[in-house]
């Protein structure tokens, strides 16, 4: 049985993100930490390296990302 499938790799990444601790102060937190990590990594996989490139990538795909990831955010994260 081959456990090294793309589905298992994605699941492992999601599990890893879920186990990470959000060290932001609770006051003013608008977005879930794990969801931000997923968006950041998706942008990095698409060769977006700077914060402004990552932000533009996320904003340009906001509706698709919200639909596919089940996010109920009104505005997407920005710089």
Walk me through this protein's architecture.
This protein has a domain at 30-73. Helices cover 57% and strands 0% of the residues. α2 (33-45) crosses α3. The protein has helices at 6-19, 33-45, 51-60, 62-69. It is an all-alpha fold and 79 residues long. It has four helices and no strands. The mean pLDDT is 87. The N and C termini lie far apart (44 Å). The radius of gyration is 14 Å and the shape is globular.
**Helix segment count?**
4
Count of extended strands? 0
Distance from N terminus to C terminus (CA atoms, Å) equals 44 Å
What's the order of the H and E elements?
Answer: HHHH
Radius of gyration: 14 Å
- Our estimate of the beta-strand percent is under 5%
How much helical structure, as a percent, in the residues? 55-70%
Query: Which term fits the overall shape?
Result: globular
Alpha-beta content class: mainly alpha
Which regions have little confidence, pLDDT < 50, spanning 5+ residues?
Answer: none
Largest sheet: none
Could you tell me the mean pLDDT?
A: 87
Topology:
Layout (H helix, E strand, L loop, with lengths): L5 H14 L13 H13 L5 H10 L1 H8 L10
Features:
79 residues, mainly alpha, 57% helix, 0% strand
């Amino acid at each position: 049985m081959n456990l090294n499938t793309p589905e298992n790799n994605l699941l492992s990444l999601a599990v890893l993100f879920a186990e990470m601790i959000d060290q932001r102060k609770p006051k003013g937190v608008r977005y879930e930490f794990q969801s931000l990590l997923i968006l950041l990594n998706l942008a990095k996989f698409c060769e977006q390296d700077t914060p402004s490139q990552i932000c533009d990538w996320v904003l340009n795909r906001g509706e698709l990302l919200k639909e596919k990831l089940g996010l109920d955010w009104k505005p997407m994260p920005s710089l």
